[in-house]
Design a protein that fits this description.
Layout: H1 2-21, E1 35-38, E2 44-47, E3 51-56, E4 62-68, E5 74-75, E6 77-79, E7 84-88, E8 91-95, H2 109-115, E9 124-131, E10 155-163, E11 175-184, E12 189-198, E13 205-211, E14 213-217, E15 229-233, E16 241-246, E17 261-266, E18 274-276, E19 279-281, E20 285-289, H3 295-309, E21 319-322, H4 327-340, E22 344-347, H5 360-375, E23 379-385, E24 397-399, E25 406-410, H6 415-431, E26 435-439, H7 458-478, E27 482-484, E28 497-498, H8 510-527, E29 533-538, H9 546-549, H10 558-569, E30 575-579, H11 586-601, H12 603-606, E31 610-614, E32 622-627, E33 636-641, E34 648-655, E35 664-669, E36 675-678, E37 684-691, E38 696-701
The protein binds 2-acetamido-2-deoxy-beta-D-glucopyranose (6 copies).
Length: 702
């Protein structure tokens, strides 16, 4: 008892540190490092002073506490559960043999220490190792990603080893389960995943990952409370991996009388069963202890997560979508891009580009054109449809298990994977192509074929296709390829996806398109960092809408063109400027130059997170603001738009909390002399705005 009391004092101390310093990890730079310590009670404590997780080692391994130390100073956990659950052949095993207590409504530590029960049939703790986080792929920051990227992130990697129980059949005794934890410095975040290793050399065990993480949490942390805990896995949505919030039904009680349980699992219409050959790994779970349901805090917290674990998503080339693949047209576009400072050309869909070609003449032409672009410092990429709706040779098509007939897509765990990877890499090596827009990456469907080279049957097909699509992107990422992929393969190396728009909005008349797009981008940047999503500017017709929708001829639509450039570059968001030229006169060239120069000058702040100041209601001004509390210079940049047909003089309430400024803000409108503003009690300033009809302005804040 005495030891435990000492222990609570230590936790209390952590809390005190946070409170005394009044630190906010979203504003203050947290310099504490992650530590793993043996507590006086003999448990292991993994802590980065923002969160901590405590593990019981004796008589077996279990998570016995998970604390938020930065926002609420409280425990998330109300009950002990196994660390994970797997099935070998038909036998289900808990990983870690500490049974849930019978009293699970809240964590009664007195009861737990007195009455904890053992599960003799579980995999038992054998040992642990401590190291540093491992990078899932190598990465060197490029293309103006922030200079402060740490890769792999700093922190602690804890590997916990489990051995099969005495009761297991002999051939299961060669299996070791490793539960991996990574906690990172300066962010209330933990990653977890499982490796299952078979040293028998037989390769005939069937494995299912039933649960990678099971946490019995207190209500406020669940979606049925305040959603203070954000849990995601590292796979695209709809690919068979799930973070399920369910009733806690394991204990003998009325369902619903306890707060819910989170269960991170594979779940599809059929069980996922994979042959265990040597080693298999589960998906990764990311657990972000936000401790708030304020929309801006939740958004900023999630943004820190993706910036940390998928740092390459912060690369931000300014690119052009070229619709004409002919050499003269390509070179004309490259000349224009070089003039105005664009950085990347993508052969768009409809340009006739063929990355899978082995036609020597074609490869020669592309090689020579890409060399021309390179001589002007411009990178080149191209579009390819690789899975969803992709027709390949019949033996590589995915088979629908219900009909036995081919689906309308390729199976990514067939020979198609080898063919595609080989052709992509060969084409890149020969031509110098350094970017891909892989449309329809593998989308999560199963394949019932039993003759494909990389999966056994329907039951392991989703698992295998996910891994191979991930490998495809990781391989490209390690070659510094920039990857547009309309899905969520960011933790596998993908760079960018659509920001979240509706495809049809780019067929609306120009002003409607611009306005709806600015509104939508405002909403989508709660979910996404600016550099992870693309928007669209249909210089020529995209889906439809004709002359009213397209920006060509540019000279005739200069005001709209400037709005598009300003609202996207001002948001730090790349748009697919899609057409065959960037300007048609000196006047339109000047517009593009002006906004590209603005972007390049303020790039370090423009690619930072967005604070949502005022959504466009189209009745008055609207505004968003980038913030970087760690900057020693510019800490904020606010864009302000007047989409109305009248001049507006008003005050804009600018919330400066997340700039990290506390007393005085120095503000400069478009590089005019700096003016001082005193922050109010809630960190806002009242900024006078005077804009003509259809005026756009911006403010620097330091
Ligand atoms: C905690 O558990 C102990 C021992 O089982 C029990 O006596 C006590 O009533 C419990 N406390 C609460 C608040 O449930
Ligand atoms: C977790 O989900 C899987 C898949 O649906 C299910 O088999 C398992 O029983 C669940 N575990 C718990 C503890 O709810
Ligand atoms: C592509 O550009 C070439 C060269 O400028 C031109 O001859 C051709 O008509 C263009 N193709 C299309 C479809 O516009
Ligand atoms: C592609 O396949 C060919 C033929 O098997 C092989 O020689 C070549 O090395 C492969 N290229 C790459 C980049 O994997
Ligand atoms: C466009 O600018 C160039 C360079 O400044 C100049 O030579 C040319 O005359 C201008 N064209 C027109 C149509 O004004
Ligand atoms: C504005 O505030 C800054 C920092 O507080 C100070 O250094 C500067 O002198 C002030 N400028 C004016 C014009 O008051």
């Amino acid at each position: 008892m005495k030891l435990l009391n000492n222990w609570s004092w230590l936790l209390f101390f952590y809390f005190l540190v946070n409170i005394i310093e009044g630190r906010d990890w979203l504003v203050d730079k947290i310099t504490d490092v992650t530590t793993l310590t043996k507590t006086p009670a003999g448990t292991l404590l993994l802590s980065n002073t923002l969160i901590s997780r405590e593990f019981l080692l004796e008589p077996d391994f279990a998570t016995i506490d998970f604390r938020d130390l930065h926002a609420t100073d409280s425990s998330l956990l109300r009950c002990v559960k196994p660390e994970a659950v797997i099935t070998l052949d038909t036998i289900q095993y808990a990983i870690g043999g500490v049974k849930p207590n019978t009293q699970c409504a809240y964590f009664n530590r007195t009861d737990f220490w007195k009455n904890k029960q053992l599960d003799v049939k579980a995999f038992h703790f054998s040992t642990y190792e401590v190291g540093t986080p491992k990078a899932p792929f190598s990465y060197t920051p490029k293309r103006f990603a922030p200079s402060d990227i740490q890769w792999p992130p700093k922190g602690i990697h804890l590997s916990v080893y489990f051995k099969a129980p005495y009761y297991a059949p002999l051939f299961h005794k060669y299996v070791t389960v490793v539960v991996n934890y990574e906690m990172y410095d300066g962010i209330p975040l933990l990653s977890k995943w499982i490796d299952v290793i078979d040293t028998s050399g037989r390769g005939d065990i069937d494995l299912s990952f039933n649960s990678v993480e099971i946490l019995a949490v207190n209500q406020p942390w669940s979606p049925f409370g305040h959603s203070w805990l954000y849990i995601e896995d590292d796979q695209p949505a709809g690919h068979g991996t799930n973070v399920l919030w369910t009733n806690d039904v394991e204990v003998n009680t009325i369902p619903g009388s306890f707060p819910p349980l989170v269960n991170c699992t594979y779940q599809t219409d059929h069980p996922i069963i994979v042959p265990l050959v040597t080693q298999l790994s589960s998906f990764r779970v990311h657990e972000l202890v936000i401790g708030s349901s304020d929309v801006e805090r939740v958004a900023l917290s999630k943004h820190r997560l993706i910036r940390l674990l998928a740092p390459h998503t912060q690369e931000n080339p300014i690119f052009f979508h070229m619709i004409n693949g002919s050499s003269p047209a390509f070179r004309q576009a490259i000349d224009q891009m070089a003039e105005v400072g664009f950085e990347m050309l993508i052969y768009s869909f409809g340009s006739g580009f063929d990355m899978e070609s082995s036609n020597e003449k074609y490869i020669e032409q592309i090689t020579s054109d890409i060399a021309y672009a390179k001589s002007k410092n411009i990178e080149v990429g191209g579009y390819d449809l690789i899975a969803l709706t992709r027709e390949v040779q019949p033996s590589w098509m995915a088979i629908d298990p219900h009909t036995g007939k081919p689906r309308d897509s390729a199976c990514f765990a067939s020979g198609w994977y080898d063919y595609l990877l080989n052709h992509t890499l060969t084409f890149m090596d020969r031509t110098g192509l350094i970017m891909v827009e892989t449309d329809g990456p593998y989308g999560g469907y199963s394949c019932a074929s039993t003759t494909h080279s990389h999966h056994r049957n329907n039951d392991d097909s989703i698992y295998r296709q996910n891994i191979l699509q991930g490998n495809f992107f990781r391989t490209l990422r390690e070659r510094s390829v920039y990857i547009n992929q309309p899905d969520y393969y960011f933790y596998e190396g993908g760079s960018k996806t659509g920001m979240g728009y509706n495809e049809e909005q780019y067929s609306l008349p120009r002003w409607m398109d611009i306005s709806v797009s600015r509104q939508g981008m405002f909403d989508d940047t709660y979910e996404r960092i600016p550099t992870i999503g693309w928007m669209f500017v249909p210089l020529t017709v995209y889906h439809g809408g004709g002359a009213a929708a397209q920006f060509e001829p540019l000279v005739a639509h200069q005001i709209e063109y400037e709005w598009a450039l300003a609202q996207y570059l001002g948001a730090g968001v790349a748009a697919c400027y899609r057409g065959y030229r960037l300007y048609d006169t000196n006047a339109t060239k000047a517009l593009v130059t002006k906004w590209v120069n603005f972007y390049k000058k303020y790039r370090p702040i423009l690619i930072r997170d967005i604070i949502h100041v005022r959504r466009a209601d189209m009745q008055s001004i609207d505004s968003y603001m980038h913030v970087d509390p760690y900057s020693n210079d510019i800490k904020g940049l606010a864009m302000v738009f007047n989409p109305t047909s009248n001049p507006i003089d008003t005050n804009l309430v600018l919330p400066l909390y997340y700039t990290g400024l506390t007393d005085v803000a120095q503000v400069s409108e478009q590089e005019n002399p700096w003016k001082n503003y005193t922050l109010a009690r809630d960190y806002h300033i009242d900024l006078p705005i005077s804009l003509p009809a259809l005026g756009i302005t911006w403010f620097l804040i330091k």
